[in-house]
Amino acid sequence: MRRKRKVMTDKPIKGGVATWACLPGFPPAVIFPFTPGERFGVRSLYEFQMLMYRPLYWLGRDGAPEIDWDLSVGEEPVWDETGRTCTVRIKPWKWSNGETVCADNVIFWMNMLKVKGPRFGAYSEGYFPDNLVSFGKVADDTVSFTFDKAYSKNWVLLNQLTMITPMPKAWDRTADGPADATHDIDQAEAVYEFLMAENGDVVEEDNSHRTRWADSPVWSVVNGPWRLKSYTEEGVVTFVPNEHYSGPNPAHLDELRQVSTTSDEQQYELLQSGDVQVGFLPPGMGVQPDGDPTKGGPNPLGDGFQLEPQILFNINFMAVNFSNPTVAGNMIRQPYVRQALQSCFDQEYGAREVYQGYGWSQTGSIPVLPKSDLVSPKIAERGGFWPFDLEKARQLLSDNGWDVSASPAVCVRPGTGPGEAGEGIPAGTELSFSLRYWEGRPSLARLMAQFRDDAAKAGIEIRLEEVMGSVLVAEDGPGEKRMWQLSCWGGGWVYNYPTGENLFQSGAACNFSNWRDAKADELIAKTVTTDSLEALYEYQEYIAEQAPVIFMPTFPRRLFEVAGNLRGFSPINPYGLINPENWYYVEEQS
């Protein structure tokens, strides 16, 4: 339905309500910023928590992938001459209970990270805070961090210090009353358990425990421009301005609502009806005739909405479960099987046909867009190590003990020698995998069906199963002896700086495939101690060759549709953070 164009003035209107229709299947599941790996994603962090609780450093400035110093609680780090110690001054912003954001609030977070790091989604074993010799309070408004050696300063800022979210004194407590994990690290465990109990079960899908968040004496203490007014059983999240906010850019709107949706079709209906002011076009409905996914093409909703592609500094991939204890896991642990799976994925088809020109092939572990010199020329030139090639996939399997004359292929040469299938794969085993993927996304279902059909031509059976998105990410991911095999939530990872310690380091909290590889660990370690591009190239080439995940076509996270009279939405943050405090309405003239 095309809307009649209205003439907009440039005159701002104070107040008003903006309603955002969110991605189907992903209600905010965690309010506690110490978010575990199974819920560590854009929806809970960047579009929910950070509206209320500001991190030490704010990622993204005016659409560029850099730090916004104005929106950051911390000042720019100052390094000593050894390159191992940095000090950070904390701006005297206010918590909503009147307390001043201070060094103690950072130390509180650091003590919890030191004790409970493996339960935090951005934690990677051996890195922050494991790579610190010490950290401490220098003054009421200043903290220091001393590292075990000199690292890339760019990496420390973007991938390490951005992990910190100052926590108020009001959160330093247990069920028995006030505690002091800020000064006594031995109390951090008990405080963590209390705060996780206040959050509620992070896997449970029912919203009943989330309805208590708005009135919680814990979660109602905020330092961001918004506070939570309500969270309903139906998943409607309502924010109102934090009247005690002391940072820059206070909110213009009276209220921000985030409504849950169940499908792309419902999302589009809400946009057509005018019931929401911010939503997105379902993938496949928008067409980019010029092949430039960074620019909006013709808008099916007409002139009443602005079409804004959300290009993030991200990669998309399908996880494969190395920790599966069955024969399926034994097959996944064979590099040639993963390489064959990657060779069966027609990314160009997905970019061109499924995503209607709003897509591009992802050749490895470094984002292709926004364009940069971070992508290995060797990978860029050959279109990835394992571009779509069904004959190559069949050859890989045939050379390693599989009869591909039928589908699924059958293991005919078991064993661990050259030309044999590999450890734990008996003769007669069929090459078959279950693939769980996010329900309610027709474009993703189409992409998965194409992958299934192409894989079958190479001798690999893919058994598809649709699963609610939030259930999928909670159940399929990091963890020992999990039973899932292949899992696709239609996305991947948004990088700060694209080293691999979060995704591919052994034991990392967000190592979704549960992959462990000593050489990868060694190459990742090189990327974090130097800003040399050669180190980054060597790392990503090894990842591309080993295929610990199946890379998929990347596309704008959303084709945002924004009401024509709502301003301040762009530029789009390349990391996925949002600033609805910048949104405001302008007057309309019929």
TrEMBL record:
GO terms for molecular function: peptide transmembrane transporter activity. Keywords: Signal, Transport. InterPro entries: SBP_5, SBP_5_dom. It holds the Pfam family SBP_bac_5. Transmembrane segments: none annotated. It is found in: Cell envelope. The keyword Transport applies. Residues 76-510 form the Solute-binding protein family domain. GO terms for cellular component: cell envelope. It comes from the Bacteria. GO terms for biological process: peptide transport. Gene3D superfamilies: Dipeptide-binding Protein, Domain 3 (3.10.105.10), Periplasmic binding protein-like II (3.40.190.10). Belongs to the bacterial solute-binding protein 5 family. This is ABC transporter substrate-binding protein. It comes from Amycolatopsis lurida NRRL 2430.
